[in-house]
Amino acid sequence: MKFAILDDFQGAAVSLPCMQQLRGCGDLVAFRQPLSSPAQIVEALKDVQVLIPIRERTQLAGPVLEALPNLEMISQTGGNTPHLDLEAATRRGIVVCTSQGAGQSTAELTFALMLAAMRHIPQEHQALRAGQWQTSQGTGLQGKTLGVIGLGRIGSRVAHIAQAFGMRVLATGFTLTAERALAHGVRMAALEELLARSDVISIHLRLSDRSYRLIGRRELRLMKSTAYLINTARGPIVDEAALIDALRHRRIAGAGLDVFEQEPLAPSHPLLQLENVVCTPHIGFVTQETYEQMLGGAVENILNYLDGNPTNVRNPQALTQRQRH
User: Fold this and answer.
1) Best exposed site among 75, 78, 184, 209 by fewest CB in 10 Å?
2) Where are the alpha helices (DSSP H) in the chain?
């Protein structure tokens, strides 16, 4: 049996203790560099039986899955699979299992970005290194209004932390009810009202057809000129070109971004040239605790599958399809 980990940029996944369990079942290989083309993916994975993708970094489209005859299981880290053609996997009899994703670590990074952007922490750090002292005046959180777009597992944690900072919280979402908002101590609002009234807006939606470019030029124009946008969810939820334009012309005060339309982000990207943006390289889930949780769950799913008792299966029809063959 051959196992492969995709996009293990830091070598953090392959070095976890739980991976020893897989090494006891076969060969384990980890790819630290992205496989950038379908042909490259197929060539690299042609002998692999079980695949462990790190989040959604590599696109596993139908033609790719069709060209991998030895692949029988995908043990996804995290619960989202927008990068994966689930129908094609099912057709091929490839069993897809998911594990629990990041929660607390992403909520924590949300406030790290918020504070860094609003208190100008990166700029003050650089100024201090250059021999300067107190070069800017920041903005505090207490008494401000936070707009949470998506009051799910992560968004609700962000809402609770915001209240500890003394912030008022508005929330919106595709399935949010006033009762659920009230249960979290926040007020439900329409997206337009949330954008217009919030001092900070934080995005916590899954990427889907409904959320794709939900925040575009129109929505950015509704924001206060003093407001900040924080995105630790998925890059394509925001129209990046519209955001760059709004930041460049100071139509909004700033942004804290952990996710982008194309990842990894190129060093020459316009967002990295703007002084009112704080960027991090999609590290919302990159903590030791979250890696142990996500990869531990992925390994557990694999071992259960090998024992004939698959768990957390997203496409149970694939099990039937595999039995037929």
Assistant:
1) 209
2) 19-23, 38-45, 62-66, 86-92, 104-118, 121-129, 153-164, 178-183, 191-197, 217-222, 240-248, 288-306, 317-324
